[in-house]
Amino acid sequence: MSQKSITILGIESSCDDTSAAVIKNAKIQSNIVANQEVHQSFGGVVPELASRAHQQNIVPVVNEALKIANISKDQLDAIAFTRGPGLMGSLLVGTSFAKSFALALDVPLIEVNHMQGHIMAHFIDEGQNLPIFPFLCLTVSGGHTQIVKVNSPFDLEVLGETIDDAAGEAFDKSAKILGLPYPGGPLIDRYAKQGNPKAFKFTKPKVAELSFSFSGLKSNIIQRIQREEKKEPNFIENNLVDLCASIQFTIVSILLEKIENAVKKTGITQIAIAGGVSANSELRDTLLKRKKSHRWEVYIPKFEYCTDNAAMIAIVGHYKYLNRDFSDSSITPKARFKI
User: Fold this and answer.
1) CA separation for the pair 89, 70 (Å, rounded)
2) CA angle 36, 38, 42 (to 5 degrees)
3) How distant is the alpha carbon of residue 207 from its chain centre?
4) What are the phi and psi torsion angles at 306 (to 5°)?
5) Which of 61, 121, 266, 305 has its CA 20 to 30 A from that of 151?
6) The total number of structural domains that make up the chain
7) What is the pLDDT of residue 37?
8) Which residue range forms the structural domain that includes residue 205?
């Protein structure tokens, strides 16, 4: 007798991307993301504008996800949604829609931690080798930088995290001082390919072995550029690619040093990365070099599962459905939500 198929609709609205995905038996059937270009002129996400855009986007995005997956809403077994962490206004839109939709369809409601989603994106079934428990996951994004020991889909232990700014914020703020448009992290990555990573030396913060800190580095970069501009007004323009390469090299070096510390401390050599900054080419390439030199097993997500997306929410929903881990309609979003 064949097992019943499980079809989950995932909804992600933690920041400025409205996303819906359909997953069937751990295989993605659709993954639709609506970006919000309205924030570019402000140099960062404006929470009020983000929540308004979510309200406009969520119904057409869900409709498109169901259409691409070629299923009707009546075939859904559960609705999974991002409860947090994130911007409260944005989370409210996704949470309210998910609660209403689950109630209307009389199917279970499943809350998902956004950061757990990033980690579990590695388990979306696309025929690849899956991480073996326990493994270490470096989760790096605009709002978070953590090293997590993943013992099971439901047992995640944070070994170390940033004490101030996240790595993604360091990329974006550095890009802003360089005059690059938002989001600047991908542009630093692009320009860095043409530059010398050793051209400029920046401060590496001294913090506990598995903790991160990027506020001092961010200040050091800004002060160095301002100091050089007083001597050479066209300093940024004349050194843009070298500045990008040096900034990226410094941030990636900090991240890899912390991973190596975590490996020494735990003895675990199964290493995964997740979150928006895991799309960074220098981080990916350096990790693959460590795979050869350190004999690590390395797991790198597909680019579409690095940035915020509903596929990662849906895969957590799949595992929680199997575990009968459901939420009731009284659930509310949490802007701060630890895994």
Assistant:
1) 31
2) 125
3) 23
4) -85, -55
5) 305
6) 2
7) 59
8) 131-301
pLDDT at residue number 198:
96
Counting beta carbons within 10 angstroms of the beta carbon of residue 203, is it exposed (0 to 12), middle (13 to 18) or buried (19 or more)?
middle
Strand-pairing partners, residue 23, are 8, 28
Q: Are 195 and 243 in contact (CB under 8 A)?
A: yes
CA angle 188, 286, 130 (to 5 degrees): 110
Q: What is the DSSP letter of 269?
A: -
Cα dihedral 282, 210, 149, 78 in deg (nearest 10): -70
Residues 6+ apart with CB under 8 A from 288: 298, 300
pLDDT recorded at residue 196 = 98
Q: Return the pLDDT at 44.
A: 59
More confident residue, 182 or 123: 123
Identify the residue with better confidence: 232 or 1: 232
More confident residue, 209 or 49: 209
Instruction: Report the CATH number that the domain containing residue 157 is assigned in CATH.
Output: 3.30.420.40
For 284, the enclosing helix (H) or strand (E) is helix 281-294
Of the pLDDT bands very low, low, confident and very high (cuts 50, 70, 90), residue 47 is low
Q: Which residues pair with 148 in a beta bridge?
A: 137, 158
Domain shared by 90 and 138, yes or no: no
Give the list of residues 6+ apart from residue 87 with CB closer than 8 angstroms, or none. 14, 15, 45, 47, 50, 51, 335
Predicted TM-score of the model (pTM): 0.93
68 with 95, same domain: the answer is: yes
- What 3-state DSSP class applies to 83? strand
Residue with tokens 């990365």: 273
Question: What is the Cα–Cα distance from 276 to 255, expressed in whole angstroms?
Answer: 14
- How does residue 39 score in pLDDT terms, banded at 50, 70 and 90? very low
Q: Which H helix or E strand runs over 101?
A: helix 88-105
Specify whether 143 is located in the same domain as 93.
Answer: no
